[in-house]
Amino acid sequence: MDKPSKTRGIITFIIAIIAVIVMIATSGLLGLILYLFAVVISFLSIDKENRHSVSALINYTKNTVCNTHKETLLSNDIFAIIIALFPVILLISCFMIFYIDPLRAAENALNDAFDELDSLF
After folding, report:
1. Cα 20–22–26 angle (5° rounding)?
2. Where would I find the H helices in 26-100?
3. pLDDT digits (tens, 9 = 90+) for 41-90
4. Which residues are CB-neighbours of 5 under 8 A, at least 6 positions away?
């Protein structure tokens, strides 16, 4: 396994994990942007012949992840999994952006209002 590919795979995996943590802990939009950065790195790191169409990308992901002989590099598995999980992460982040984040903002606004009322009395 060549060192730049292995390093790029590890860095991409770390970015994806941080993106999911940020998405859950703070902001769905920020987490989505970070995960999108990991997807772009993964997409640019796979072979050029597998990037030309969606079906080629799906076949590449299926063949890489489901390969029982493990002739592929670990970084290629990481890239394929990050790309394959993008639709799921997109759905989760949309749920976070449109449902959870407004609830958090409303709760913070109510807490601030109650703190102001408590300080008056």
Report:
1. 135
2. 28-45, 54-65, 74-84, 86-95
3. 888 877 666 666 667 767 777 776 676 666 556 667 777 788 888 888 88
4. 45, 73, 75, 76
**CA angle, 58 then 61 then 63, to 5°:** 105
CA 94, 95, 98 angle in degrees (round to 5)?
80
The amino acid sitting at 76 is: N
* Consecutive H or E run containing 8: helix 3-25
Say what the pLDDT of residue 109 is: 92
Q: Is the pLDDT of residue 107 over 70?
A: yes
For residue 41 the two structure tokens come to 């790195």
